[in-house]
Amino acid sequence: MKHTEAREGDIPVCFRKFQEFLHVISLRQIALKSLRQITLKVTSGNTTGELGREGKRPGSGPAAPRRTSPRPCPVQRELRRRVLDAVSAPTTKLAYGHALDDLFRFLAGRPLDRALLQEWKASMDTLAPSTINVRLSAVRKLVSEARASGMLGVDEAARLTDVPNIRQQGTRLGNWLTREQARDLLTVPDRSTLKGKRDYAILALLVGCALRRQELATLDVQTIQMREGRWVLADLVGKGRRVRTVAVPLWVKQGINAWMAAAGIEEGRLLRSIRKGGKRVGEALSDWAVWDVVQKSAYGIGIERFGAHDLRRTCAKLCRKAGGDLEQIKLLLGHSSIQTTERYLGSEQEIATAVNDNLGL
Question: Does 67 have pLDDT greater than 50?
Fold first, then answer.
């Protein structure tokens, strides 16, 4: 076979069309680049014509200044990453991330000092004291990471971390159910359906075991074990990575068994999402799905603005009213101190039989 040198006229048709395609793409990119340059000039007020010399249409008012949020510098981004890596709870990561992003926007490139931190704290006066205190905790963690990295001296770090929290007067009692309301809530799910069996198991574990929403959503079947002749949630890792073992009442275990048998679950996550049609089972369930189940069930008995954590408080309240020991309730909830449990229960104030009910007046 003779080898012939390819000439321009011998280019295959498909290759020639590909060259034309690349040429069109190149022209389009040039046009887009020119358009972006024109747009930047117009928005900065450097062009004339239809928009006028000020970057506005003739006869209109003064052009509004463009509001830009400066991006965090590389050092800020690195410190933010270290802060979030240092905390384990997903909700804490989210709260700290929002707090640091807000701080960096407020600083707008200025170096952080005590005066600016106090000014940022004062700008949050419309927020709840607990929210402000969480944001200040995020800043203290940021300062700690900067100090450990040698970016801040000891004295400067001490001045920044010395900014006090907002003092919260009184104790918020929160929301909870009575025993009768809790019983009514458990009758809301239709336990003849797969979804109803799952929703009943969710409500039963929240009311009967005082679990947090995230703990329940990530609960594994292997956690349910037999200890000392009864069923428990063994070595449950909770907030602050504190490990506790939670006893499972018999009626709660019966609800779990009914759900597992109907869904065919033998291992992995206990709670699963249910696809459309109410038959197929997914691999996991988000904590927001747990919240949605609780809210809709509470609405079914005429209670609005009721969340999963309110069922955790309900369990603690019912335990205390039934004569439960405060230390045992503390262990059930996984609190770090008895004072936290006392504040949680509102032990200092009795509502049902208040001291001022029997004044004899």
Answer: no
DSSP for residue 243: E
Amino acid identity of 309?
H
Residue 56 has pLDDT above 50, yes or no: no
Q: Which residues pair with 220 in a beta bridge?
A: 269
Q: How far is CA 311 from CA 141, 266, 290, 295, in A?
A: 31, 27, 12, 11
Query: What span, in angstroms and rounded, lies between the C-alpha atoms of 290 and 210?
Result: 14
Decide: 185 and 177 in contact? Cβ < 8 Å.
yes
Phi, psi of 265 (to 5 degrees): -95, 125
pLDDT at 326 over 70: yes
- DSSP tag of 286: -
Q: How many CB atoms lie within 10 A of CB 336?
A: 11
Other Cβ atoms within 10 Å of 119 Cβ, number? 11
Distance (Å, whole) CA 70 – CA 52: 28
What are the tens digits of pLDDT across the range 86-101? 888 788 889 999 999 9
Which class is 74-161 in CATH? Answer: mainly alpha
What does the alpha-carbon distance between residue 158 and residue 147 come to, in Å, rounded to a whole number?
10
CB 262 within 8 A of CB 197: yes
Asked whether 332 and 319 are in contact (CB, 8 A), the reply is: yes
Spatial contact of 245 and 227, defined as CB atoms under 8 Å apart: yes
* The token pair that represents 130 in the structure block: 């607990």
Distance from C-alpha of 232 to C-alpha of 78, rounded to nearest angstrom? 42
Type of residue at 169: Q
CATH of domain 179-347: 1.10.443.10
Q: What torsion, rounded to 10 degrees, do the Cα atoms 210, 212, 215, 221 define? A: 30
pTM strictly above 0.85: no
Q: Where are the domains of the chain?
A: 74-161, 179-347
Distance, CA of 160 to CA of 165 (rounded, Å): 12
- Which pLDDT value is given to residue 339? 84
CA triple 310-140-90, angle to 5 deg: 40
Q: How many CB atoms lie within 10 A of CB 70?
A: 11
